[in-house]
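## retry 2 of 3
previous attempt timed out at serialization; input unchanged, resubmitting
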Amino acid sequence: MHWIDVGVLVTYFGGLFAMGAWFSRKNVDTEEYFLGGRRFKGWVIGISMVGTSISSITFLAYPGDAFKTAWLRFLPNLMLPVAVVIAAYFFLPFFRRANTTAASEFFEERFGPSIRLYGAIAFIVAQLVRVSLILYLISLVLQEITGFGAVWCIVIGGGVVAAYTILGGFSAVVWTDVIQTIVLLAGGLVCMFVILLALPGGFTQLLDVAITDGKLAFAELRAGELVPVNWDVTLFSKTATMMLLIGLVSWLTEYSSNQNTVQRFCASRSAAEARKAMFICAAISVPTWAFFMFLGTALYVFFQVFPAPVATEALNGARKAEEILPFFVAAYLPPGLVGLILSAVLAAAMSSLDSSINAISTVSITDIYRRHLQTRASEAHYLRLAQIIALAVSVLMMGGAIVLMKTDTKTLQDTATILTSLLGGGLLSIYLIGFFSRRGDARHVLGGIAGTMLFTSWTVLSANGLLPSSSAYPFDLYYTGFVGNVVMFIVVYGLSLVWTENFKKPVPP
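## retry succeeded, writing output
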């Protein structure tokens, strides 16, 4: 790396650490450490939510996917505004009616402590897997551009985000996310500007080539050719309609059960500010995702005009498509801009990692330790333990990333997906039943959890050829989460018709 790029990175890391140290002065209790005193305005929370939702996976995967294929996988994101409107007016009141800290607190009010404990553990395990995977993927980019060893990249990236998150708590997370979102967008704009300057025909040429080659269509790559998808309603193949449905389910789950999101609802100074934050997040996120998809399309056109062996290998499958943006940055950008783009990539990762570290600490203290293990300790005790848990999570995150580095990536990504599906499958249905139905109690929900886990286990075993072909799953694996929510709803509601005594009414907003 050029010394200018190193200087940009050091300045960026130093600024984040300084913000963590600055906000650490205010952390005198868990209310401040977990929620920033519940005083944030909607625009701050909204921009921080954008940073949290756009991880390093998105920063690399969206351009890579559009570069190699087309825009099919952008479709689920179009349902974010629909989910936000539903959540803002129907979900938000349940989390704002009292001094809620964790999403799972609603589970205890509605179903009892056992379901709250399940929700907390499911979130913690899924987030530990997720942050390890994000840190591992970002270490690949650091290696590509800096030439540092893999372990050093993991330790440096994980260490910086751990330091300011542990020190500064939720306030540091929110404000660094705001800065990281700006850096992320600036990095993407710089790449697009360089591409447009290099193309002889500029933006017009970009559009002409992209349209001619079908790169802006909702299409799927089949046998090396882009094939436009139809709008059928089916579980057997990817269609535009089903991708939209998957997006709706995914975003409703995000805005009903993800602690990273619910924690921001609760940290807003009022319900109106929380609602404003949700609308701001949707208004910024969808165009941002579209921009990074278009950046991938622009990279495709760039390398059609200026061929490179690495780009050809990414298109034919010899290399991963996600490598195309790091290659472009390292090979075509001048010193200084490389440091800016690397900061943007790190910003995408850190804005997800810091939120998850703080959220895991929040859930561990609020839903498990303070609720079941030590109910009468001092605020100083809970605050100190929260910081220790955040440190432990950071160490586990770095350890998990190192394990991923030394193991077959594809297998472990499959494992991450499996664990998340096993533990998190059907959460949306539990919340919807709790919000809007009189039926269902802890017995019914526990039965639904067992049924959903059996369903997911059957899907996983069948997909890996461990069951007879006669028992194969009759749907595209892409729809496992959606079908899992249907299974959860049917089992819980069905059991409530059998065990009818002692219904517990939902808590009104």
